[in-house]
Design goal:
Helix content: 25-40%
Number of strands: 5
Distance between the termini: 23 Å
Number of domains: 2
Number of helices: 8
Radius of gyration: 16 Å
Strand content: 5-15%
Oligomer: single chain
Strand order of the largest sheet: 2-1-3
Length: 161
């Protein structure tokens, strides 16, 4: 739901070139999900079952971006229920390293875990917010650890007080 909420608040012309990144095993399970992912959202589906050194999901993201698209991705790599994001995984760093021209826009989503709790099929009518921050980019001398901590902090600082 998080990616769909971000996608929905974007202006139409931006939405047309913005692709959510999602788990292939979840979104390809069933006709409705598959239709939404492939026909409505033009999602980039990442196969979480692939292991080993033969396939790097960052390659899929770079290819999906091309020169036209933006992506909605969640660097934690899993759905969280806490107010602050979990520790970021290294994929965001590797994407920023491969595409230094990208502007990475931090986004904070408030209250969505209560609007659509895990396992729910119908949203609960509660207010939530989508807060966009200033773009960040990988600095030339920044370590992976420092960049991921800074990127996470860019989201944490958007949290309403």
């Amino acid at each position: 739901m998080d990616a769909l909420v971000i996608w929905a608040v974007l202006p139409l012309e931006v939405r047309r070139v913005t692709r959510p990144v999602a788990a292939k095993d979840y979104w390809m399970a069933g006709r409705i999900r598959r239709h939404l992912a492939t026909r409505e959202f033009n999602a980039v589906l990442i196969d979480r079952a692939i292991t080993g050194y033969h396939h790097n999901p960052v390659d899929d993201l770079v290819e999906a971006l091309g020169t036209r698209y933006s992506l909605i991705l969640f660097p934690e790599g899993k759905r969280g229920t806490e107010a602050e994001p979990a520790r970021f995984r290294s994929g965001l760093y590797h994407l920023a390293e491969r595409r230094p021209d990208l502007e990475l826009i931090p986004v904070y989503l408030s209250n969505l875990n209560r609007v659509m709790p895990r396992g729910a099929h119908i949203p609960v009518p509660l207010q939530s917010d989508v807060v966009f921050g200033a773009p960040i980019a990988l600095s030339g001398d920044e370590t992976k650890h420092d960049f991921l901590a800074r990127a996470r902090e860019a989201i944490v600082t958007l949290r309403p007080k």
